[in-house]
Amino acid sequence: LAKTTQPISMDSYEGQEVNITCSHNNIATNDYITWYQQFPSQGPRFIIQGYKTKVTNEVASLFIPADRKSSTLSLPRVSLSDTAVYYCLVGDPGNYGQNFVFGPGTRLSVLP
Amino acid sequence: DADVTQTPRNRITKTGKRIMLECSQTKGHDRMYWYRQDPGLGLQLIYYSFDVKDINKGEISDGYSVSRQAQAKFSLSLESAIPNQTALYFCATSDPGLDSTDTQYFGPGTRLTVL
Q1: Would you say residue A97 has pLDDT above 80?
Q2: Cβ of A96 under 8 Å from any chain B Cβ?
């Protein structure tokens, strides 16, 4: 499984765009990049998944460069309610013998 | 996710006691997981099951055991609880055959305190 590295914590202010970068230098050809969000005392929930280039949904965007050795989760115009821990996971969802691994995540604090 | 339920939600017990945490799901997923989360830290995988006949150890299985009674039920047992097993425990489900992203859906968690 590809190991991921992301910042332990980040601070931002309401209304700003937040970009959280994840490094995954040994990502495999069939691996996808998945991000989860976790609020205090709740289980993580899926935000977005991508393989290459850019993916966007109603919550976030995911930017993946051509070499796929890193990825950036972009949260537009954050609010206080976006304060959470964000996890970057790398793995092959089509590999029935593999499961995704959660690392320590990035703790995002949004300040007023 | 209300489709994944955990019981109990909170439990206080004493060192040496046997404890069982239960997880049920109505999503029809094949895969089920048990995670542990210590304060301020990420999730650590204890055990996972890809189907009823398949049980696998995760990163921190020592001191824990599991039982997959049915597709919908996955129980975690602490045979002899110790204080450093005090943590928040999450159950999750997924099914890459139904969802190509293999998204994991988490239960509300069980807060376990071992005195």
Answers
A1: no
A2: yes
Check CB contact under 8 Å for A45 and B48. Answer: no
Q: Taken in order A78, A69, A34, A8, is the CA torsion positive or negative?
A: negative
Q: Please give the torsion angle defined by the CA atoms of residues B76, B104, A74 and A79, in that order, rounded to the nearest 10 degrees.
A: -60
pLDDT at B1 over 60: no
Residue A2 CB neighbours (<10 A):
18
> In angstroms, what separates the C-alpha of A14 from chain B's closest C-alpha?
23
pLDDT in tens, B95-106: 888 888 889 999
Q: How far from A69 is each of A46, A88, B105, CA to CA, in Å?
A: 21, 13, 27
Q: Do A42 and B101 touch (CB under 8 A)?
A: no
Nearest to A6 by CA among A110, A108, A104: A104
List the beta bridge partners of residue A49: A34
Q: Is B109 on the interface with A (CB under 8 A)?
A: yes
Quick check: A40 contacting B, CB < 8 Å?
no
Question: Is residue A92 very low, low, confident or very high in pLDDT (cuts 50, 70, 90)?
Answer: confident
Show residues of chain B in contact with A99, CB under 8 Å: 31, 33, 45, 48, 94
